[in-house]
Design goal:
globular; Quinone Oxidoreductase, Chain A, domain 1; 2 domains
């Protein structure tokens, strides 16, 4: 038996509880892990609170991230004792996820835990940090250099935004951090932001083309914010879009793309191929000091995870929530 957060649904609706589960109930997979830490992402909060149909089948153990130690494997690349990280692949949505003491998954979904990180530190990053690294990789692969100008990060006090600010600053970029929590300016400057601006400057419908300001953008917000960010991006610049905190709509025009040669890069973290994942985790291990993670991390136990998911939905959380599944 192991402890797990279980989402169930019947005629009365959805319910979530911390309960004991028999290992025999674990889904099919060729690698079994003892999970040490998981996280709470926005998607996990949606699944736990039922605010959006994230869960594809019931019962479901949520948690799109996990880090732990392999206990059994029939996969060629994994052996008992190996330390591994998992992000995405439908885990926590259609396949039992990481908010449990045990997991059984497809070994192809796993990435070796970088030696620079403990399992807790890896989950302080989780999908949010890994997605931020994918965004930074996209900007750099486009050819963006620090001498080309400021880079904007939207949703900067969130998990993706916080790590993106830190990674870009470590790479030598001048970072402008947009946030609705202007009281967190000191926190953002501590991560490396040179400028902090109110998200209200970007949140309403704007002109198709605006004054050129950003050499690059990491956007975790979508909607009008993304449209305005594109409209303000300099000639030949690049925008990495990875989120929809403001909305899924994109009320923009083609003007920035056909008149200024702006590139809009979509960033998918769920189904990204293994080489891209490995590169992202290597960037995190090389450029992000583990001790810097403490300023963006709070830890809860499994017993506190449901309440923490509601706080995340209420917008009262900054940075990352790590879940110790063994307490």
């Amino acid at each position: 038996m192991f402890s797990a957060l279980l989402v169930e649904k019947d005629e009365a609706g959805q319910s979530v509880s911390l309960t004991s589960v028999d290992e025999a109930q674990l889904p099919e997979g060729n690698v079994t892990l003892a999970v040490e830490y998981s996280t709470l992402n926005y998607k996990d909060a949606l699944a736990i609170t039922g605010k959006s149909p994230i869960v594809r089948k019931y019962p479901m153990i949520p948690g799109i991230d996990l880090a732990g130690i392999v206990t059994a494997s029939t996969h060629a690349h994994w052996s008992p004792g190996d330390r591994a990280v998992l992000n995405g692949w439908g885990v926590g949505e259609s396949h039992w996820g990481g908010l449990a003491q045990r997991a059984r998954v497809d070994g192809d979904w796993l990435v070796p835990l970088p030696a620079a990180f403990t399992t807790r530190q890896a989950m302080a990053l989780g999908t949010a940090g890994y997605t931020a690294a994918l965004c930074v990789d996209a900007l750099l692969h486009h050819g963006l250099r620090p001498d080309q100008g400021e880079v904007l990060v939207t949703g900067s006090t969130g998990g993706v935004g916080s790590v993106a600010v830190a990674l870009l600053a470590a790479a030598g970029f001048t970072v402008a951090a947009a946030t609705g929590k202007t009281s967190e300016a000191e926190y953002l400057r501590g991560l490396g932001a040179a400028t902090v601006l109110d998200r209200a400057e970007l949140a309403e419908r704007g002109k198709a083309l605006q004054k050129e300001r950003w050499a690059g953008v990491v956007d975790a917000v979508g909607s009008h914010t993304l449209a305005n960010a594109c409209a303000q991006t300099r000639y030949g610049g690049v925008v990495a879009a990875c989120g929809l905190a403001q909305g899924m709509d994109f009320a923009g025009t083609v003007a920035p793309f056909i008149l200024r040669g702006v590139t809009l890069r979509g960033i998918d973290s769920v189904m990204a191929p293994t080489p891209r994942r490995t590169e992202a985790w290597a960037r995190l291990a090389e450029d992000l000091k583990p001790e810097a993670l403490e300023s963006i991390t709070q830890e809860v136990g499994s017993t506190e995870a449901i309440a923490a998911a509601h706080r995340l939905m209420d917008g009262t959380v900054r940075g990352r929530i790590v879940v110790d599944v063994n307490r």
